[in-house]
Each structure stands twice: as C-alpha cells, then as structure tokens.
Amino acid sequence: xxxxxxxxxxxxxxxxxxxxxxxxxxxxxxxxxxxxxxxxxxxxxxxxxxxxxxxxxxxxxxxxxxxxxxxxxxxxxxxxxxxxxxxxxxxxxxxxxxxxxxxxxxxxxxxxxxxxxxxxxxxxxxxxxxxxxxxxxxxxxxxxxxxxxxxxxxxxxxxxxxxxxxxxxxxxxxxxxxxxxxxxxxxxxxxxxxxxxxxxxxxxxxxxxxxxxxxxxxxxxxxxxxxxxxxxxxxxxxxxxxx
Length: 243
Ligand SMILES: Nc1ncnc2c1ncn2[C@@H]1O[C@H](COP(=O)(O)OP(=O)(O)OP(=O)(O)O)[C@@H](O)[C@H]1O
Ligand SMILES: [Mg+2]
Description:
The chain has a domain of 151 residues: Rossmann fold (3-Layer(aba) Sandwich). The strands form two sheets. A six-stranded mixed beta sheet has the order 6-7-8-3-9-10, with helices on both faces. Strands 2-1-4-5 form a four-stranded antiparallel beta sheet, with helices on one face. The chain is an alpha/beta fold. Helix 6 links the parallel strand 7 and strand 8. It is globular, with a radius of gyration of 20 Å. The protein starts with 6 loop residues before the first strand and ends in a 22-residue tail after the last strand. The protein is built from seven helices and ten strands. Bound molecules: adenosine-5'-triphosphate and magnesium ion. Adenosine-5'-triphosphate binds next to helix 1.
C-alpha cells in the first residue's frame, strides 16, 4: 500500500514558459509530502531552478496554483508567510547575499521572524559554527570565495529553522570536507526537502524520492545507483577514455 504523508507543497495545473519556444512546465501536477526528501535531477536547462523559483513566488507561472499545507498561496501576505517557512538556497550565492557582512545576511531571516537582535545574532553564530565557518562571521561577503559564499547562503537559510528546505545545488564548488559536512547537516534535519543536484551520490545519500522534469511534466525516477561495467576491447592494458 502506498502510504503518503501530509501534503506540504503542491502544484496543480502549472504551466510556465520563458517565451514562445521556451516551455518549461505544461499543465504539471506534483506534491511534496511530509517525510519526502526529494532529489530533483535532470539535464542543464530542463527547468529545475525555475521550478523552485515558482514554488517560492520568485517567478509567477502563466497558469496553475501553488498550495502550502493544502491552502492556495496567492496574496502578497501569503507569499511573505510562505518564504518565512520555506528556506530556499539559491543556485548562485550572489543572488542571495545582500549585506556587506556575513553575519547580517545570516541574521536577516531570524530578525524577520521576530527574534531580537541579540537572539538573531546568537542563532546565526550557532549556525555558522555548525557549518564550520564561524571565523568568517564578520568578513565582507564580496571578499569570500565561491565555496565560502555557498556556505553562507546555506547558513542564511538554516538560521531561519525552515519547515521545508529547497536547495539548489547545495554542494556545488565545495571541497570534500565542506561537502560531507553539508551532507551530514542536511541528513540531520528531518524536514521535507527538495534538493537539486547533478551529483547522484549526494542525492542518493540525502534523498528518498527522485524526480525529473520531462516534456513539461514531473516524472518519478529510480534512486541513482552506482554500478560498474565489465567490457572487452583492443586497448590491452593501455590507459584509455570512453566517450
Ligand atoms: N530569465 C530567463 N529568461 C529566459 N530564459 C530563461 C531565464 N532563466 C532561465 N531560462 C531558460 O529556461 C531554461 C530552464 O532554466 P533553469 O535555470 O530552470 O534550468 P536548470 O534545470 O536549473 O539548469 P541547470 O542544471 O543548468 O542549473 C533554460 O533553457 C534557460 O536558458
Ligand atoms: Mg539550475
């Protein structure tokens, strides 16, 4: 029997296009349930980032509705409320970091959620500590490396203790230690999530449901699995590459 959890984020009749020959979604329907740790996988340009932007109201679809907890999200206030609960780590950190100092970006969410300056700062420092980047709390964001910026965007979302996590390529550009730290942190947060990644290993380590976008619709796919091939050819022992 297929037992589903509660509907958390749902789209119905969703259509979105960037222009006449740029259809991304066509009358698509999909739902993120409680307990879902979704890996969103697919080739470059298939619309993965676009979908998460639609889910958070950064892009308005031409048709369809978005529901949070079973209720349609449409007014400005409803979108504002949704963004306080649904944490979205964007693909490009420069789109997410606005303040000169790291700590201000990380504390922005908690302050918006009503915490005092002291509480927000304390929470932000704790998250930076968890991510192993407390030492850059007072550094200027534009002086950081790409990987450090990615970690700061992660911190700016985790500091809000979101109910849902949307992560767009969370480990892109990170070194091995930061990547495995992020995987541990993600796995330590038992909340519904959607993770976009081109890294099948990351997805299989952090997700329990896998989807892709095909022909404007969402398709469930198998868990990525590592496998090896045995083959014979005429290179002998010589080092060679495969197309
Ligand atoms: N602002 C925009 N205006 C016009 N076209 C856009 C815009 N943003 C994205 N696109 C196009 O829409 C398609 C989907 O883009 P999107 O960024 O959602 O893909 P993606 O699946 O996240 O790809 P990637 O794996 O490379 O990040 C691409 O063909 C892209 O060129
Ligand atoms: Mg993308």
